[in-house]
Amino acid sequence: MIDVERARRETPGCAHVAHLNNAGAALPPAAVTDAVVGHLRLEERIGGYEAAAAAAAEVENAYPAIARLLGCAPHEVAVVENATRGWDMAFYAFDFHPGDRILTVRTEYASNVIALLQVARRTGAVIEVIETDEHGLPSLDHLAGELERGAALVAVTHVPTHSGLVNPAAEIGALTRAAGVPYLLDACQSVGQLPVDVGEIGCDMLAATGRKFLRGPRGTGFLYVSERLVERLEPPFLDLHAATWTAPDAYEIRPDARRFETWETNYAGKIGLGVAVDYALGWGLDAIEARVTALAEGLRERLRAVPGVTVRDEGKRRCGIVTFTVDGVPATEVRRRLGAAGINTSVSPMEYARFDLAARRLPDLVRASVHYYNTEDELDRLCAALR
């Protein structure tokens, strides 16, 4: 169970706004903000290098914390600037050739698809989109058949940015493992609101961010790369942190996932990320999921009762992202009016999810995303404002 009153006491922003934009950037708990600001103050007093040395244990804490969150080893974790950078560092490390098949899903995120298209254009690789079943989920039968034909990579977004559905990540992982095909999972929207265990899912790589449901600082993210795959992947660029200059004409890449990092980093953000992960683990991801999914289902029920509002979420298993449209009112205008009423929401535009929204003939969507510190009253406020 989540102690909502405690969660709200420890989240100063709850006193100022009904924050239903957690899929964009959640409100941080005071512990995270204090950790970040405290380190910046230390840098102010003694210098950046000196502060990093003095806080080495707090900086290093991010790795075992993330490892506990994901069910992996600390040496399989890289801390990076954001989820997109982590995803790109893994994806661009593959050496694709003409005809190589990259399998993805209809709900894939724009940044990932743009990278797929760029690499396909450069290398002659081929992008194949897995068919969708009646629930809006990737067809596992179709994926199995495509894997039998051979593939170089499967790239899937766990939770789409524009929908409450949860893709069957573990079922996909079982198929990719059996076929011996590498599996890259974008867990940007799932980590922090759902339990995510890389061993149970079976992915080889996973990218996620700090600022969303983990409630960490902006400008932080991380990448998991399995030890069974890491030595096969040479990052698209290296520096003196990722590799060692061993001779005038030679270098050696470090053997762990930190080969995907760079030497310069946001030390305050890294400390804050570790604190945010520990804070989430303190609540428990099972308890967080139960609270978040219950709130989201309650919001969907409320929205269906509002005239002119249509809920657009698909899937069999759903999460804390709720998307909807309002008849005759563009999504950006809905967001503006809600914001004027002190309710934070977001918009999922067509260009963020072109495969899916175009296939479903949908316009831009309003996105309300709940977290465990939100209340039933805040959901009622949203629906009253919509009316």
TrEMBL record:
It comes from the Bacteria. One of its GO terms (molecular function) is transaminase activity. Residues 20-382 form the Aminotransferase class V domain. Its cofactor is pyridoxal 5'-phosphate. InterPro entries: Aminotrans_V_dom (IPR000192), Aminotrans_V_PyrdxlP_BS (IPR020578), PyrdxlP-dep_Trfase (IPR015424), PyrdxlP-dep_Trfase_major (IPR015421), PyrdxlP-dep_Trfase_small (IPR015422). Belongs to the class-V pyridoxal-phosphate-dependent aminotransferase family. This is Aminotransferase class V-fold PLP-dependent enzyme.
